[in-house]
Design goal:
Blueprint: H1 10-59, E1 68-84, E2 89-103, E3 110-112, E4 115-121, E5 124-131, E6 134-136, E7 141-149, H2 160-167, E8 169-184, E9 188-203, E10 208-219
Antiparallel strand pairs: 1-2, 2-7, 3-6, 3-8, 4-5, 4-8, 8-9, 9-10
Length: 220
């Protein structure tokens, strides 16, 4: 007897094709997933390297330093003080020229805001002048000349003024403050400030400064 040839039906043929196609499809999916993982891993590594580089630069080359203010000179521009006994009245006019310099030791410029300088008498503001906003370039030093005048009307209610003028020694303090920011790598704003305070003793009769002591405070 001869065996009859076994014929493959159409349905069985399609099943065979589908079965053979499944492994190939799984292989392509796995390959695609591996490529995605490699791409994501490479991107994350690159971003981490960039972030690390920025951090290193911010902490070394571009590390923010404190600005340095120096009072170079304080001179009397004008001075006049008189006392009337009847009625008791004092008239005082003191004008000072103050030259200061602000050094920026950073590798990046400092942008500072509107500020002011003031004359203080026993803790009270008796005269001030504005300091306009500006910029100090990298490694540059900004020179400023300020003229401060005592506002006499602010002293009329202070009885200590009479004793100081009669004794011939008038005590004042000058105060200046510069504050602004340093922008590091166009990413971070670091706020900085620099202040100076000078204690002054003025000889009213001889029209000169007989004592001067300055204090400085710088912040980042």
């Amino acid at each position: 007897m001869h065996a009859k040839p076994k014929h493959t039906t159409e349905e069985e043929h399609e099943a065979t094709i589908v079965t053979a196609a499944i492994p190939a499809s799984n292989h392509r999916t796995q390959t695609s997933n591996r490529r995605k993982c490699i791409c994501i891993s490479t991107t994350l590594t690159t971003l981490l390297a960039i972030a690390l580089l920025i951090l290193i630069l911010a902490l070394t080359v571009f590390k923010t330093k404190k600005p340095i203010t120096t009072v170079n000179s304080v001179t009397i521009n004008d001075i006049n003080a008189t006392i009337n006994l009847i009625p008791l009245k004092i008239s005082i006019n003191i004008s000072l020229d103050i030259k200061i310099s602000v050094k920026n030791p950073n590798k990046i410029g400092i942008t500072y805001h509107n500020s002011s300088a003031a004359l203080m008498y026993k803790g009270r503001d008796v005269g001030n002048v504005p300091i306009p906003a500006g910029k100090i370039g990298s490694g540059d030093t900004k020179q400023m000349k300020l003229t401060l005048t005592v506002f006499a009307d602010r002293l009329l209610s202070d009885v200590d003024v009479y004793g100081d003028v009669i004794s011939g020694n008038f005590m004042l303090s000058s105060y200046t403050r510069i504050y602004g920011k340093v922008r590091v790598l166009n990413l971070f704003n670091i706020h900085v400030s620099s202040t100076s305070t000078c204690d002054l003793k003025i000889d009213v009769l001889n029209r000169k400064i007989v004592y001067q002591r300055c204090h400085y405070k710088n912040k980042v």
